[in-house]
Specification:
335 residues; 78% helix
Length: 335
């Protein structure tokens, strides 16, 4: 198990190095020169004020989404449960887009965007609790109501776009998910929130492991399944809201990374939760590096200096392809 964590940490370092060097405007040699204390003022600004905070935000958001997905899948006993099931992802997108449309927030005011997204995410979770809170924590009912809440909030986002068509760019960035333009303020807002709720998720490892075995076994062990599930959902809501507020809705990270973490680190959540955090960080960081390299190659091939591939588009395409592959290879499996 130690070797697996070490190998994954080494992969994270490699992905981080590639991401820092992959952006346009500077060659990898120039980046290395800046990291060794050289370079001019512009190059140092690009590396230290743009690329490093973008890297850290990608790592933090990936860890939050992966842990949120594992917490949800364990609490709801549903292998297809992801952050979208809580209604937090579309709620956070709706909050950010609405605040931007009203002129209360914008990409140049990270604090206002984060607060608006967190408020929207909490509102989506509150709506879910109002609908499913009286079902005594039934996993199936919670998942069904979460899908319905997400659809309703997505409809409201479309309505905002109809009222303010000029916000199309903002809507697309939040719906797809991107790390473009992230600065130190985004990271300073994300890391305390992420650290708090990641620690809370790890403290819930024991109750979540019992919930994975079923409510009857949890009750036999003296655990209040409803209370434990409510705490787990609260933790997942907080982690998802923080990640979406920072980078938007990154598709399939919270759905597929938990399965990979459990396959690598086992069903003991005391190991698989930290493993999911590290795996999610690697996946989002690697996807962002691949997106930047692809943008660089496409911009050169098409002679378009403004072409940018958002990381959320890459995670959505790769995640959907991987999910289809798994389903086709295991057609008899019940999801």
């Amino acid at each position: 198990m130690t070797r697996r964590f070490t190998a994954l940490a080494a992969l994270a370092v490699v992905c981080a190095a590639v991401e820092v060097a992959a952006g346009r405007g500077m060659s990898p040699v120039d980046v290395w020169d800046v990291l060794n204390g050289g370079g001019d003022a512009t190059e140092r600004h690009i590396v230290f004020q743009l690329r490093l905070p973008r890297l850290l935000v990608a790592l933090g958001a990936g860890a939050c989404l992966a842990v949120a997905g594992l917490v949800l899948q364990s609490a709801l006993r549903n292998p297809l449960a992801g952050p979208e099931v809580t209604g937090v992802t579309p709620g956070a997108v709706l909050g950010a887009v609405t605040a931007t449309a009203l002129g209360l927030a914008g990409w140049n005011s990270p604090l206002a965007v984060v607060l608006a997204a967190c408020a929207g995410g909490c509102a989506g979770a509150a709506l879910l609790w109002l609908l499913a809170g009286r079902r005594h924590g039934d996993p199936a009912q919670t998942a069904v109501h979460g899908v319905l809440v997400s659809a309703v909030l997505g409809g409201f986002t479309a309505m905002v776009l109809l009222v303010e068509p000029g916000e199309l760019g903002s809507v697309v960035q939040w719906l797809v998910g991107t790390t473009e333009g992230r600065v130190w303020e985004h990271w300073h807002l994300l890391w305390p929130w992420a650290l708090l709720w990641l620690a809370a998720a790890w403290l819930l490892a024991g109750p979540l492991t019992l919930l994975r075995c079923g409510d009857d076994i949890a009750l036999a062990a003296g655990l209040s399944a409803r209370r434990a599930r409510s705490l787990a959902l609260l933790c997942a809501v907080a982690l998802t809201a923080g990640a979406v507020a920072a980078v938007g809705a990154l598709g399939f990270v919270g759905l597929l990374v938990p399965h990979l973490a459990v396959a690598v680190f086992g069903a003991d959540l005391r190991r698989s939760l930290p493993g999911a955090a590290l795996t999610g960080a690697v996946v989002v960081c690697g996807a962002d590096a691949a997106a930047q390299l692809s943008s660089r190659l496409l911009a050169t091939a098409l002679d378009s200096g403004r072409l940018t591939l958002p990381v959320g588009a890459l995670t959505a395409c790769l995640g959907a392809a991987l999910l289809l592959l798994v389903v086709r290879r295991t057609p008899s499996r019940t999801f």
